[in-house]
Amino acid sequence: MGFWSRTFTWWNGATWGTGLFTRLHGEEVARDDAGNIYYRDKKKPASRWVIYNGSNDGSRVPPEWQAWLKGTIDDVPDKALPPKRKFERPAEVNPTGTMAAFRPDGSLSKGGLRPASTGDYQPWTPD
């Protein structure tokens, strides 16, 4: 990442200010499977934050780490939570705004045509 993008963008990783604050005051706690790095303040352990690996989107943080960031659990998820069960699926990033987002029938990306309404529905028409 270039100098200018790190200086002026907050949506794609840490800015210089966040990086400097993290070096001075942060203690790395762990990294998750997505490459996000979790920190806590050296003097105030209840103050916690994440440096994203990529775009800054809260849905990129798994639920167990969300619990740690918000102080719901005190220790890191591997130690504080029970092991994952076989039926649990990994968390997914929110696909809103991407081509992977849900597109209902009638949306412009599906041709703009939707099935005719059924039942007793009467659309409003101005007089």
Could you please describe the fold and organization of this structure?
The longest helix is centred in the N-terminal third of the chain and has 10 residues, at 16-25. Helix content is 21%, strand content 12%. It contains 4 helices and 3 strands, in the order ααβββαα. The protein has one domain. A 3-stranded antiparallel sheet has the order 1-2-3. With 127 residues, it is of the alpha+beta class. The model has no long low-confidence stretch (mean pLDDT 84). InterPro entries: NDUFA12 (IPR007763). This is NADH:ubiquinone oxidoreductase subunit NDUFA12. Residues 79-127 are annotated as: Disordered. It comes from Sphingomonas sediminicola.
List strands and helices in order, with pairings.
Elements: H1 3-8, H2 16-25, E1 26-31, E2 37-41, E3 48-51, H3 63-69, H4 77-80
Antiparallel strand pairs: 1-2, 2-3
Region (Disordered): 79-127
Protein name: NADH:ubiquinone oxidoreductase subunit NDUFA12
InterPro entries: NDUFA12
